[in-house]
Amino acid sequence: MKRILLIVGGGIAAYKSCELIRLLRGRGHQVRCVLTEGGSQFVTPMTLAALSEQPVHTSLWDLKDEAEMGHIQLSRQADLVVVAPATADLLARMAAGLADDLATTLLLATDKPVLAAPAMNVRMWTHPATARNVARLRADGVTVLEPDEGAMACGEYGPGRLPEPAAIVAAIEAALGTGDRPLAGRHVLVTAGPTHEPIDPVRYLANRSSGRQGFAIARAAAMLGARVPLDPGRRRQRPRPCDQRDAADAGRGRAGRCGDRARDGGGGGGGDARRRGGDGRGGRRLARRAAAAEA
Ligand SMILES: Cc1cc2nc3c(=O)[nH]c(=O)nc-3n(C[C@H](O)[C@H](O)[C@H](O)COP(=O)(O)O)c2cc1C
User: Fold this and answer.
1) Smallest Cα–Cα separation from 3: which of 26, 40, 28, 20?
2) How far apart are CA 245 and CA 255, in angstroms?
3) CB 11 within 8 A of CB 87
4) Which of 58, 80, 117, 122 is deepest in the core (most CB within 10 A)?
5) Per-residue model confidence (pLDDT) at position 237
6) Would you kindly state where each structural domain of the chain is located, as residue ranges?
7) Consecutive sets of 10 residues in the chain, 295 residues long: mean pLDDT of each?
8) Is the distance from CB of 109 to CB of 63 less than 8 angstroms?
9) Taking each helix axis from N to C terminus, what angle separates 212-223 and 165-176, rounded to the nearest 10 degrees?
10) Atom 9 (ligand 1): residue with closest C-alpha?
11) Which residues have any ligand 1 atom within 6 Å of their CB?
């Protein structure tokens, strides 16, 4: 049994924290909730208290709590601090190191690992300010889960949905080092992103893969205990010296080392175009056709 301090932020996905509590308790963990002022617009302390069977904390200025259990103690007695949903506002306050309510004060005072599950509109998630805040939090050692992609409550579509509660539970147990780890001791090599199949030294067949599926598979394998080297996919392909020379040769109407295709008319477009206007056979053929047309 592990003790989890769950901070519920002020997002529409706050209702999913109820399912999260239920799942965590079903797996034998104790859950104590902190509800932000924003969060209390979406779920009530009563609901969280009933599901967790623990008192719910909402205010830094609750003197009764401070006498029985100060905010420092509350932040330290958990094994893991979980923020779900982590709103854009809460992530920004965390990244800035603010301590302007009970949730952020606990997050600043804790000496325990912190895991955040973001949930927000796609524009909020992709906004450079949020990206900056997430990068800063990750650099500070906070585990920030990638949000799910899909239809949103606001009617838009894209990344920003709270990960499913079961996936958050898996991430929590991975962070705690508990749970099922059937891939422990295994290496899983994951490649992500587009592939490039060469047709010849110049051209290739590619696809528009974003790499997201590969990243999700890598994350799932890591959560199941595997060590996961991840190849994030091809970036811009740098031509081999052989390719460069062949492209230049094709432009001059000569065959390169990598075959005769350019000279035979099956080579790269740039090489072909230049060859027709040059001194190769294609140029002479065009000149003959032009002379015949004039006659
Ligand atoms: C109906 C409604 C839904 C909202 N949903 C979200 C949301 O999903 N994610 C988010 O980052 N902010 C959302 N907001 C804005 C937050 O409620 C607002 O930024 C709030 O200050 C966040 O409080 P917190 O810092 O305690 O989480 C929503 C606001 C409203 C009125």
Assistant:
1) 28
2) 10
3) yes
4) 117
5) 42
6) 3-179, 182-237, 241-294
7) 97 97 96 98 98 95 73 90 98 98 96 97 96 97 93 84 94 85 86 90 91 85 83 56 38 37 34 37 44 43
8) no
9) 50
10) 120
11) 9-13, 36-39, 87-90, 119-120, 124
Indicate the pTM of the whole model: 0.69
pLDDT at 53: 97
Token pair belonging to 125: 């998630």
Task: Report CA(38)–ligand 1 centroid distance (Å).
Answer: 7
Round to whole Å and give the CA distance between 186 and 227. Answer: 6
For residue 143, what is the enclosing H or E element?
strand 143-144
d(CA 89, CA 36) in angstroms, rounded, equals 11
Amino acid letter, 207: N
Residue with the smallest CA separation from ligand 1 atom 15 is 11
For residues 137 and 114, what is the distance between their CA atoms, to the nearest angstrom?
10
Catalytic center residues: 154
Q: Ligand 1: distance of its center to the CA of 85 in Å?
A: 10
Q: pLDDT at position 272, please?
A: 35
Residue whose C-alpha is closest to residue 140's, from 110, 179, 180: 110
pLDDT reported for residue 228: 86
Residues with Cβ within 8 Å of residue 137, at least 6 apart in sequence: 91, 94, 95, 116, 144
Topology, domain 3-179: Rossmann fold (3.40.50)
87 alpha carbon – ligand 1 mean position (Å): 6
